[in-house]
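notes to self, project folder thing:

trying the whole complex as one job this time. last attempt i did each chain seperately and stitching them together was a nightmare. two parts in total, labels are on each line so i dont mix them up again. if this works i'll redo the older ones the same way
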Amino acid sequence: MAINVQSQPKLQDRQAVINDFAFSVATKNGSGSQTSNNVLVKSLFQMGIPVSGKNLFPSNIKGLPTWYTIRASKDGYTARKAITEIVVAYNNDTAPEDVSNLPVGGVCVTTDKIARVIKQRDDISYYEIPVAKLMKQTEVPSAFRKLVENMTYVGAVARLFSIPLETIYDVLLANFKGREKPAKMNFDVIQLAYDWTAENIEKTDPYRFEAMDGTTGKIMMTGNDAGALGSIFGGVNVVAWYPITPSTSFVDGIISFRHLRQNEKKENTVAIVQAEDELAAAGIVVGAGWAGSRSLTSTSGPGISLMAEFAGLAYFAEIPSVFWNITRMGPSTGLPTRTSQGDLLFTHFLGHGDSRQICLLPGNLQEAFEFGWKSFDIAEALQTPVFVVSDLDLGMNNWLSDPFEYPDQPIERGKVLDAESLQAFIDEHGKWGRYLDVDGDGIPYRTVPGTDHAFSAYFARGTGHNDMAVYSERSDDWIDNMNRLSLKMESARKMLPQPIVDDAAVADIGIISFGTNDDAIREARAWLSNDGIETDYLRVRALPLSDTVGEFIAGHKSVFIIENNFDGQLNQLIHMESTSDITHLRALKLGDGLPMTPSWIYENIREQEG
Amino acid sequence: MPPRTNHLGLSRNQYKGRPSTLCPGCGHDSISNQIISVAYEMGIEQHKFIKVSGIGCSSKTPAYFLGGSHGFNALHGRMPSVVTGALLANKDLECVAVSGDGDSGSIGMGQFKHVIRRNVPFVYIIENNGVYGLTKGQFSATADEGQFLKYYGTNDMPPIDLALEAVIAGATFVARSFSGDAKQVQALLQAAIRHHGTAVLDIISPCVTFNNAETSTKSYPYGRDHEIPLHEIQILAPDYVDAKEEIEIGDYEAGDIIDVEMHDGSFVRLKKLDNDHDPRNRRMAMEVLERSMREQIFMTGLLYYEEPRPTLADTEQLVDTPLAQLDANSLRPSPQALDQVMGSLMAS
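result (full assembly):
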């Protein structure tokens, strides 16, 4: 198709800001803006500009305000910025506040209608798009008109900040899976707005994009998709789930990648069951793990609450199973569409009585993929549930990453006995008991149903049992069993993914964090370093904590525990586990529902260390 | 004299589990005994069976039968989800699951309905005594309205009929029996094991400690005096067709016999007694159940049967090999497959 590209607008005298600014797109939920925003982010990605897109959306189907922040960073920093230089103000309800949040010299792209009520600042640039007038000129069928209206800002933004229309068209086509009709319908609106902007608007701001080489060989994906893909490569067999934000797209990801594991007759090696609630989902996962398959569920806080009962059973009956907690803001229903790291302690100690769950804490796309497959190996090696505690920010937003590495270890099923190895076990040890610890690591040998051997059967239960899996209320049996489970957790400490430590600078200040704060921390450390404040950094990747954490704390004069929850839960956990002096620990805890910004970290550390 | 053995060369004792810890005379022990007898008579291979339960007196019983089968005493009311997972993991397994009226009628009503809806193929036994035993005698949701119990007085709530709920949920095999009627329980168990879908057996199983007064419809005396079997039930093995003519029909007219063909080629032969019930008629099944609930008539037998619809594993279009037995090659796509996905996500 023909694409009309106008000559570039004349730059103002102010020094150009290229590929290093953020904008925020304010729209109403359900207005079709998701496609528009995706097209913008993916176009910048195609231009080779490191970029991230974060959706700050309401718990609502239609009407409530939603913001999408897009950050371009030539230096590769993709954390959310506290202040965006540009706002696309397409929601009349929030426009006044959106405009007042702009910094001096900022830019407001808005509709002519909204502009009438918000033009109260003279230190920013306004660009008004006559949306209603433009839409009248299109040939878009009236049924679709409202949905493609947002494409007008894509056209205006493309013109104002220099995104090539060819790139946008390619991204649109990919977005519609190669179907030209919807792509063209949307593109026509973009072209119209682009042309109108070229003819009618004089650019008065310094911001623009320029193609660069910052994304070659990189991928863009959501963490939920990455985790789902990892699970497919980890051999998941049974997926049971109940829809809940922000974990639903995790299962959507498994559905979309399931074909990678189908045979030539298109038959499945992954069963996917939408259960009646999270409780049943957990039960299906535990039943499937007991019967020898690899099973997972994906949920968030309210679902985790319901799964507590099965989590405790699986811990105590020692059944491998994988639970993804795509954390959203609690307590209670909380902020269903906002991110949080507030389930750390709840998930780690999920279950009544003395139970403790393995947690893996992915901090980026690659780890979401890696923990996707590795979680099954860990669950089967340790014969226990594994909780992958991700969050909404990683799960639902588009992240930039190096491509994933193929698993570097073969699939490991752990200590599971078939008929032959069971006989060998009995020959060697005189007998086999489901909870008999012959290796001294707290990890027994298991059999699965269907094993054709006279002594393979055992009775799994959440009630007290001895090492032969026989019901027992004896105190000594109970204590022996709990001691073995503790030993197993100690074995786990060494087997789990170890912290990532950047301790080269030999600084006095240490930073400890986990999960998706990573991007913001990396950037804040660079800023601090510019100010002459050097820091070391340890990122926890699994619970129970590695011994490395204690060594890192002992090696620094002051240590900041940075986390995105209100109570400072990692800090509490470290205090709970620490045996030495840790009075030099300082909790930097946030929990405002948004992805952490580098400026918040920078300012807090400056204030205390400056 | 050596003990009698079945075609696998196993004695009946070899189908037993550990000694029961239930009250002497408990109806549940009688059901466990029928399971043992049926498994022995059918000559089932125990390693191909699993036994799963919820929580409660009834749910303790899987420990007392089929010692050679893997068992799972799960959570209160959550047996159906565990069975669902296990049978997805290994669709070649067969399952006998035990629940109670508290388990299925109250805390686990959701799972009871949904496992039927998904048609997970297993035998779902409800050992129904109208009372909570382990917590010492509270009414369950299947207790009759107006019934009196020592500590909790008169029951003000109408009962839930779990057989009726099963039919409504779409179960393809629904039966009611009485644990005091060993012959019928055995016949229904055999049919249920041969069925290819969720088979619900609501067995009235008296609690001798908390709910065995004559006035209770869940008691031994009441059951013995009031049970009205719908049919006389006979299970005819798959090879019976050749010998069809030789089967003793006795006093029955041809129209009084219903032969229900099962998935494995065997037949359940129902000889009509006093009622005209045809279990292949869903409307009739619901009417019988409604009437028996309204008028407190204790009708037992095969209440409803239909040609099985696809099981969950069929719906999921799973590969032939049980998922739990797939080799590593089937569990992990190739490096090229990952490269391809990565390529599709890269900037072009």
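what i see at first glance: Residues 242-249 of chain B have pLDDT under 50 and may be disordered.
need to look closer tmrw
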